[in-house]
Amino acid sequence: MTQTAATIADQKSTDAADVPAYGAAGEPVLPELRTTWWETGMKARADARLLTVLTQLPRLVATAMAISWRADRRRTVIVAAATIAAGVMSAFGLLATQRVLIELFAAGPTPQRITAALPALGWLAAVTALRASMGIINGYAQNGLTPRVNREIERHLFETTTAVRLDAFDQDEFADDMERASRGTDSAIALVQGAFNFLAGLAGLIAVTIAVIVIHPLLLPALLVATTPNAWAAIKAGHQRYQTYVAGSARRRRLWVLQQQMAERRSATELRSYTLRGFLLNLYDRVMGAETAIQLKLARQVTTTTTIGAVIGGLATTAVYVLLGLLLFTGNIPLSAAATCVIAVQAAQRSLSTVTIHIDRIYLEGQHFGDYTGFMHRAQAHMPPDKGAIDPGPLSELAISHVSMSYPDRDTPAVDNVSLTLKAGQTIAFVGENGSGKTTLAAIIAGLRQPGTGTVSWNGHPVSDLDTARWQARIAVVTQDFHRWPFSAATNVAIGDSTATADLPRIYAAARRAAAHDMILDLPFGYDTLLDRTFKDGQELSGGQWQRVTAARGFMREADLLIMDEPSSALDPKAEHALFQAIRDRQGSLTTILITHRLANVRHADVIYVLDRGKLLQSGNHDQLMAAAGAYRTLFTLQAQGYATAKEAA
After folding, report:
1. Residue range 555-567, pLDDT digits in tens
2. Is 27 part of any domain?
3. How far apart, in whole angstroms, are the C-alpha atoms of residue 592 and residue 475?
4. In the chain, at which end, N or C, are there fewer CB atoms within 10 A of the end residue's CB?
5. Of 57, 60, 78, residue with least CA distance to 142
6. What is the C-alpha to C-alpha distance for residues 3 and 9, in angstroms, rounded to an integer?
């Protein structure tokens, strides 16, 4: 059941009221140490009773088998067959053991008894050897199954995370949901292994039970009494571990972030220049202190649970041995049966220990894998709309009609009822103060974000009706918040058009247009230089150098529509001039949307759109906007005065 925005807001305010703003020592409580509104549903699921664990077990085992079957059918069959065969061998082993004991405890000379026991001993040796061989086969098949399961599950996760809409990453709950899902990929392997090991233990336990019933029916209740307490303790302890795990998603993510900031090259310079060492270590101590306290509490709970199980199990086992003594004393069972029962109890305890350990593991990993499958299901709500089938064709006209969009954590729209039209070959500029909606509007045009209201049309067709792959192939975007990919310089340029990663002439041409070619050639290995200092022979680029590489990505595609968001903020004057000359060269044939605060660079634009707080204030070319009193003339004049003052001072 989904929650409305009002319900969520009410829940947020309720939770906030329940949590003190300051701790006992007077220090503010970090947000990541509080129970947030979206965690309450997760915690409710974690608080399910042990009966729920047992009822979920068949489903979890079936899920594991389905994963294994998809990953590698042949190895799945081998593991299943070896597991069943090992259980059958256990039953035969116990029956052979009883036969040996019957012959050894029979009346008559010792040599005669030993001779009579030899056939049973032969069977016992053969069964033991076969069971050992089944174990070897099982282990070999499982070792080959593990990497295939990992590939199957992890690939599916990445197929989803790379397909969801960009706005999914704006939501904190989505990030935490994804963090738990990434843990679930490892759990898939553990779930499959745990399920097979559980089935192996279960087969052994069933085999022992059958053998005990054959030997003497009265021994079955004794077997159950001796083995049940430890089973309960193992399941209960696993449940406690999962409850603690669920409550700690935000803390784990915060710890991971802090660890990255204190150990990565990217943050090393600013960490030292602002003397942030003490600040970050203090944050780490506070978050880790809370995590440590929770883990210590968990350790006490688990130790108490397992101790209670061990004590009760020890008392029950002692009672079983006393019962055997009484049965022997009263002549209700023969000595051979009593001796076999002792062996059976020990074998059953080993098998049940395997079963309970893996029930614990299956439940724990099953819950984590449930986080994975739950995320995969919930992620469908963040998928782009269904693809259309219309070929967009070369851009002739792009129309934006009454488009609005709001971010989930803001009260005011980022883009508010904006309408405009772009023609092929035009150079368009979006200008305005920080937060005016320029980048968001460009992202809507590029299809990276979906408008809440309004439509975007390409050549008269709503973009929802277009073939998405063909449409996006006609658009290139250079973002101001670009990513520094840890690849070679050539690959960093080529990913602007992933279909041409080996086309060196195109890579060189794109780099030249972005004034990056000579800079790349000066690197130690030229275009083969790895742009990441964390690897051997890797190099780190300056901000301006990275901006040239990023601009080159945009030129790789030779797109109908090129969107460049603050492409020159870190460039030197010479590189900036070369970049904007390349942008001007597109004018008249290809369309460019340019977002920049350096208004001197947009004077050549065919149309300049001025935005403020998401609204479109003005539009026109440079001369028209300068002639009109308004925001553009104010901003341009302020910048021009800055240059004039500098000139006069010189």
Report:
1. 998 899 999 999 8
2. no
3. 10
4. N
5. 78
6. 10
Q: In this model, does residue 8 exceed pLDDT 50?
A: no
**Residue type present at position 227:** T
What CATH number corresponds to the domain at position 521?
3.40.50.300
| Three-class secondary structure of residue 399 per DSSP | strand
Whether residues 624 and 639 share a domain: the answer is yes
Contact 603, 623 (CB under 8 A): no
Tokens linked to 430: 């979006």
DSSP 401-443: EEEEE--TT-SS-SEEEEEEEEETT-EEEEE-STTSSHHHHHH
In angstroms, rounded to a whole number, what is the distance separating the alpha carbons of residues 650 and 646? 6
Q: How far is CA 609 from CA 59, 438, 599, 603, 623, in A?
A: 58, 9, 12, 12, 13
CA distance 163 to 178: 13
Residue corresponding to tokens 């009579």: 116
Between CA 607 and CA 380, with CA 478 as vertex, the angle to 5 degrees is 110
DSSP code of 488? Answer: B
Is pTM beyond 0.70? Reply is no
Q: Which two tokens stand for residue 529?
A: 């230089």
Beta bridge partners of 612: 615
List the structure tokens of 150: 């990992």
Q: Is residue 407 packed enough to be buried (19+ CB in 10 Å), middle (13-18) or exposed (0-12)?
A: middle
DSSP, collapsed to helix, strand or coil, labels residue 29 as coil
**Sheet of strand 615-620, all strands in order from the earlier edge strand to the far edge:** 475-478, 561-565, 591-595, 427-431, 607-612, 615-620
Domain closes at, from 367, 382, 397 = 382
Cβ atoms 566, 595 nearer than 8 A: yes
Q: Provide the 10 A C-beta neighbour count for residue 165.
A: 17
Tokens of 224: 């159950």
- On whether both 269 and 412 belong to a single domain, the answer is no
Backbone angles phi, psi at 433, to 5 degrees: -70, 170
Least confident of 101-105, 178-182, 392-396, 462-466: 101-105
Cα(335)–Cα(338) distance, integer angstroms: 5
Which of 477, 425, 424 is closest to 447 using CA atoms?
477
Task: For residues 414 and 489, state if they share a domain.
Answer: no
How far is it, in rounded angstroms, from Cα 60 to Cα 246? Answer: 18
Assigned token pair, 559 = 């797109």
In a domain? residue 45 = no
What digits encode the pLDDT tens for the residues 240-259? Answer: 776 677 667 667 777 777 88
Considering the domain boundaries, does residue 26 fall inside one?
A: no
DSSP state of 530: B
Task: Looking at the structure, tell me whether residues 218 and 286 fall in a common domain.
Answer: yes
First to last CA, the chain: 68
Torsion sign (Cα): 127, 132, 135, 136? negative
Query: Which of 219, 210, 218 minimizes the C-alpha distance to 351?
Result: 210
82 φ, ψ (degrees, to nearest 5): -65, -35
Nearest residue to 541 via CA among 264, 265, 260, 272: 265
Average of per-residue pLDDT values in the chain: 78
- Residue 1 located in a structural domain: no
Contacts of 13 (CB under 8 A, 6+ apart): none
Residue 459 zone, left/alpha/beta (φ > 0; ψ -120 to 50; rest)? left
Angstrom distance (rounded) from CA 493 to CA 510: 8
Per the listing, tokens 């308004």 go with 630
Structure tokens at 9: 């807001």
The whole-angstrom separation of Cα 364 and Cα 189 is 13
- 537 and 466 in a common domain: no
Task: State the DSSP code for 390.
Answer: B
Say which amino acid occupies 49. R
